[in-house]
Please model this.
Amino acid sequence: MAEIVIRNTGERITGDQAVRAFLEKQEVLYEHWDASKLSSELKENFLLTDEQKKQVLETFDSEIKDLAARRGYKIWDVITLSEATPNLEELLAKFEDIHTHTEDEIRAIVGGKGIFIIKGGEELGYFNVELSPGDVISVPENTPHFFTLMENQKIVAVRLFIEENGWIAEHYDDPTFIKA
Model:
């Protein structure tokens, strides 16, 4: 279950109803899939082969198609990251750059953990959304954000896209952001 941390106050928001209510106010889509459907062989494997990634997509086929029908997604894939990923630090440095997109950025976490850091309203500032298996989040288009891994540095996630070439990140310069 996702948890939220307000970066400028340290306040932590937990519990399904409180998390959903907070994210809804920020216009961030949040859903939960049954991650237990995925075999531990796939959920705990952070170096999936193309065939295994296909199995992940097949496992969540109905959830993906439902979300795609509701939100206009045309393509999807699976991404895996771990300490065994070549150039992991280089990739994380790229991911940890605040940016926006002309379409929403969505992740369905099916293994491991990750964090979206999202800019809320002026008085709120940035907040972290800590994601665990089963959490599905969609950051609205043109919303400053970035994604990174949690301390275990392991994740398996389904990504969905509207644009067939995927989204393109546009750098967002924010001198008020403090990376802590």
Observations:
- The CA atoms of residues 121 and 137 lie 18 Å apart.
- The two ends are 23 Å apart (CA to CA).
- The chain has a mean pLDDT of 90.
- The first helix runs from residue 16 to 25.
